[in-house]
Amino acid sequence: MSIASMTGFARTSGAVGDFLWTWELKTVNGRSLDVRCRVPQGFEAMDGIVRQTATEHLKRGNLSANLTVDEVASRGRLTVNRAALDQVLALVGEMQGKLDARAPSLDGLLGLKGVLEVETPPVDAGIMNQRQQAIEGGLRQAMAELGAMRRVEGARLAGMVLGHLDEVERLRVAAVATAGAQPINIRQRLEEQLKQLMPDGVPVDPERLVQELAIIAGRADVREEIDRLAAHVEAARDLIGKGGAVGRKLDFLCQEFNREANTLCSKAADLALTNLGIELKAAIEQLREQIQNIE
Fold it and tell me: SS3 breakdown of the chain: % helix, strand, coil, rounded to 5?
C-alpha cells in the first residue's frame, strides 16, 4: 500500500439533457475523517451517499463536498397572472378621479408582486432518477480522482519523511561518538573543580572520587536514549515501507523522538552533545511537520 496525503482536490461535472451538475471535493488535514456536504434543495439524499463514499476511499482528513446544479428548463418562463392583473386594473379604475395621480405604467403594473410569475415545468420521476444516478456516478469519479491526487502527494511526502529520518539517524550516530567522551570530560571537570575548592595539601580520597564519578556518569549516560532513537528511526522507516493509513502511528513516534531528544539534552554534560541535541530537536520538528500531512 502507498502513503497518502490528507490534502487533495478533485472536480467533476456532467449533464443529463439540459441539466448540468458539478462536484467539487477538497480535503485538508484532520485528526479523523470529518465530512461536510453542501447540496442544493431537492438533492438532500446525496449527503448520506457522500459520507458512505468518503469512508470507502478515505481514512483521515476534513472533506468538503460541494454539489452545484443548473437546469436550463428549471429557470422557467415568465407568465402573467391574469386574475391578479384584472384585480389590479379594477382597483385602478375605481380610484380614477378620486386621487390626483398619474395612471400606472405597464412596467409598474407588471412589477407588482403576484402579477408576473415564473412557470416551472414539473420533472418526471424517471428523469429525476437519471439525474441522481449521473450525480452519484460523478461523485464516485471525483472521489477516485481525489484519492489518486492524495496518493501522488503522499509519495512526495514519503520521500521527504525518509530524508528527515536520515538526518535524525546522522545526528544520532554523531551523538554516539560525542557521548562516548562524556565520562572523560566529567572526570576532568570534577578534578578541576576539586583543585579549586580543596585547600592546598589536602588529599582527595581516590575511592570517594570514583564513587562520585560513577554517580555523575550514571546520570549523564545517554546510551539508552540513543538506542531508543535508533529503534524509533527503524520503526518509522518500516511504517513508510508498509504504507497505508500510518499517519497516527508516525505522529506517535514523533512524540517519542521528542521525548528522547529532550532527555538527551538534559543529560548532556558537554557543549558538543548539547548542540547535537538541539540539532536533533530541529530535525524532529521538521519531520513532525511533514508527518502531520500524512493520512
Answer: 60, 15, 20
CA distance 47 to 24: 14
Collect all residues with Cβ–Cβ distance below 8 Å to 182 and sequence separation of at least 6.
217, 220, 221, 222, 269, 270, 273
Q: How far apart are CA 111 and CA 295, in angstroms?
A: 56
Alpha carbons 173 and 177: distance in angstroms, whole number: 7
* Nearest-angstrom CA–CA distance, 178 and 276: 9
Mean pLDDT computed over every residue of the chain? 83
pLDDT digits (tens, 9 = 90+) for 216-241: 555 556 778 888 999 999 999 999 99
What global pTM score does this model have?
Answer: 0.71
- Strand 8-16 versus strand 19-28 pairing type: antiparallel
pLDDT band of 157, cuts 50, 70, 90: very high
Dihedrals phi, psi of 29, to nearest 5 degrees: -60, 145
